[in-house]
Amino acid sequence: MLQDIVGLVGEHDYRVVFIALAVCLCGSMTAFRLYSRMNGAKGLVRGAWLLLTALVAGSGVWATHSLAMLAFSPGLKVGYSPTGLMQSLMAAVVLLAAGFFASGANRDRANQFAGGLLIGLGVAAMHYSSMSSFVTQGRVEWEAALIGASVVLGVLGSTAALVIAGRATSFLRQSLAALMFTTGVAVLHLTGMTAMTIIPDASVVVPDQLLSGGMMALGVAVITGMIILGGLGAMLIESQTSRSALERIRILANAAYEGIVVIQGGVIKDANAAFCDLAGLGLRDLYGRPFDDALLSFDDDLGVRTDAERREGRMHPVNGGQSVPVEVFARVMDDGARSDTRGLTVLAIRDLRERRSAEEKIRYLAEHDGLTGLPNRNVLKSRLASALDRVEASGETLALICVDLDHFKEANDLHGHLAGDAVLIEAARRLQSSVPAPSFAARLGGDEFVVVQITDQDQPTAAAELAGQLLDALKETAIFEGQDLAMSASLGVSLYPDDGRTVEALLANADMALYRAKESGRGVYRFFKREMDQTIRERRNLSRELRQAILDEDLVVHYQPQARAADGEIFGFEALVRWRHPVRGMIPPLDFIPLAEETGLILPLGEWVLRRACTEAAGWERPLCIAVNLSPLQLNQPNLATMVHEVLIETGLSATRLELEITESALFKDYQRALDNLRRLKALGVRIAMDDFGTGFSSLSTLQSFPFDKIKVDKSFVENIHRDERATVIVKAVLGLGRSLDIPVVAEGVETAEQLEFLRSEDCAEVQGYAIGRPAPADTLGVWTNELPLPAKASPAPRKRRKVA
Ligand code: C2E
Ligand code: CA
Ligand code: CA
């Protein structure tokens, strides 16, 4: 038996053994390559790779075994059962599949041991089932211990191969694992063969239908070759498709707006066109370049991290351009299947310049006035606050100058909003060029500006000097579409810290000083004085008292007669309000109407006067007219016509007896609404008179824009008839205008017989003034309002009966 065994080893054909080993190495190399693909895949694809791995490895082992059998010639007739061979192939494939599946599941040691065990068993099962298909002319005897040893060695070899392979991502690991596996298979085979002893027996017949060694070799070679080629083909197709997928990805990546860069081992492996632009280099130069801080620095200084979180940083173009703010997303692309994806990280880099500039723009818009580009109110407050800190620390001085353009609203309405805008822009430009940094100008809104002066010169000298310069700068006419637009401004100045230590106090006090500047005739500047505080407080008290007076009906209406110039016939009265103050006595309207207008109290006040006057007039025996003054604020109330209508209904006064007087400037607050209101009033049957004509713009277009029923030429002209050439000319001109527009003209403030005579000679239609009658309480009007027979003798002057002398 020993001899047999020696003979057995000696009877191997080593060329065939060598081929068998080469086939095993090739098959297992291919199998481990496929195994690496399996490890990188998921789901069904993973299953497919597993099947291919098992098929290639199984058939490789099977072929190795079959070839090794061919190399072995016991010197007897041999035959192989085809079914047995097929069964051994099946056993190898199934158990190897189980083994590769087990080892690849979690890829830890336990898995690898389990996998090694299954694969080792698979190889052994293949070996021994194949041996059972082997028939020769003799008895075959087996030695159990050696069989056991062969199985153990096979399992060890397989396990070692799996441990060496790991994920089998590199060629080296694949090769070493294949070598180990081949060694395992070879050792198992040889030990297994040693366990077998053939005792020749001529009585054993080898059936003819069994495959001869040559046939088996051919069949095995064909099947194995096809399977291994199939596996290689699959791998080729896979890498080909992934290459063309890569090609497609490159095209897509180049079309992307974001920069995409692939880095591996700290160097650039690939990049798209957008990244090349950001980096300022072509792909050829970028390739292999270290990817570090010099190219992309992160704001958080943490370097490239591979979490998917969005981070911000700056790209530094290699060609030395300006660094670009970017947003970065990092992704690890390592699928573990291939060595070429190890540590592969892809960064998507978004250029934030556009977004930043949009943000910049939004911030600019939020902080600056859209028209003039000056800082707006909000920014003024914050910049003023920091300026206060600054001067507090540096010992510089600070002055705050409120600037208000004179007559801006009127000019705006007269010349149009475009001209108004041009004036504002020009004013802003002049202000800005008059204040060198760190001083600055801002726009509060409308025609109000603020200049903050920060200087190391003494105050108030420096502020006075600057205020004077600003006045001069704003006095020059602006030109809009070839048209000269007059400009001027009033200024109010407050000083830090004397006039206030806070933003609010300085603003409020400069505003108060501005108010004073306006009061003293505009076109000047005023410094804030403590006394101003006092006047303001008084005004506040007064408005509180006025509010109460309206409620308490402490107001009275006086009536001033209006007469036809030609024959002195009284045809109506103008209602003029007075305030009967418990302490100060009778207060004239000019002392409280502007305050009422400012505080909005004019609305209840005006409505009260209207109701009072209409009630009074409705009680007159003679249906004389009643003229009531409407303030600008009233004219802009959307419900004005409704209110007037209600008063007429309540008091029972016929609308045709009511005349409402408005001034030209009242129209300009909101021209359209004012005109709307006038039209609706007119539709009620109420007449509308243009009051104080000659003091405002006296524009012909105002008169043409609405069919006024009367023009009242201002008393400032009438009182200067014969005294001032200009006044006389103006009165004549207004009378001429009235004639040409077919609107009757009333002369106000007629005090003397000469004035009356002149007006009559100039064909003036109506007159009003002390010469006809002074404003008087309602209960004194009976002489005109009662339907009385003419007395024989005239009543005492100036209350002549119905007619003017
Ligand atoms: P006005 O509408 O121009 O009223 C005419 C003013 O001239 C009245 O002053 C009247 O007393 C005064 N006057 C009349 N004839 C003569 C004259 O021959 N010589 C002189 N020197 N003055 C004369 P008054 O009553 O002080 O009213 C002043 C202004 O107050 C009025 O000017 C009017 O604009 C306003 N006003 C008066 N009552 C009301 C009212 O109820 N509502 C509104 N919104 N304003 C009123
Ligand atoms: Ca009036
Ligand atoms: Ca008037």
Describe, in plain words, how this protein is organized in 3D.
- The protein is 53% helix and 18% strand.
- The chain is an alpha+beta fold and 805 residues long.
- The strands form six sheets. An eight-stranded mixed barrel has the order 18-19-21-22-23-24-25-26, surrounded by four helices.
- A hairpin with a 2-residue loop joins strand 12 and strand 13.
- It starts with a helix and ends in a 20-residue tail after the last helix.
- The N terminus is likely disordered.
- The structure holds ligand C2E and calcium ion (2 copies).
- The site of one calcium ion (CA) has 5 residues, from strand 23.
Draw up the topology in text.
Elements: H1 2-10, H2 14-40, H3 43-71, E1 78-80, H4 82-106, H5 109-132, E2 134-136, E3 138-142, H6 144-165, H7 171-194, E4 196-200, H8 213-255, E5 259-264, E6 267-271, H9 273-279, H10 283-286, E7 296-298, E8 311-315, E9 324-332, E10 345-351, H11 353-367, H12 377-394, E11 397-405, H13 408-415, H14 417-434, E12 440-445, E13 448-455, H15 461-475, E14 478-480, E15 483-485, E16 489-496, H16 503-519, E17 525-527, H17 530-552, E18 555-564, E19 570-581, E20 585-587, H18 593-599, H19 602-618, E21 625-629, H20 632-635, H21 640-651, E22 658-663, H22 664-667, H23 671-684, E23 687-693, H24 700-705, E24 710-713, H25 715-718, H26 725-741, E25 745-747, H27 753-761, E26 766-768, E27 776-777, H28 782-785
Parallel strand pairs: 16-17, 19-21, 21-22, 22-23, 23-24, 24-25, 25-26
Antiparallel strand pairs: 1-2, 3-4, 5-6, 5-10, 7-8, 8-9, 9-10, 11-13, 11-16, 12-13, 14-15, 18-19, 18-26, 18-27, 19-20
Helix pairs in contact: 2-3, 2-7, 2-8, 3-4, 3-5, 3-7, 3-8, 4-5, 5-6, 5-7, 6-7, 13-14, 14-15, 19-21, 21-23
The structure holds ligand C2E and calcium ion (CA) (2 copies).
Ligand C2E binds at residues 560, 575-577, 588-590, 593, 606, 609, 629, 631, 661, 691-692, 715, 748-751, 769-770, 775.
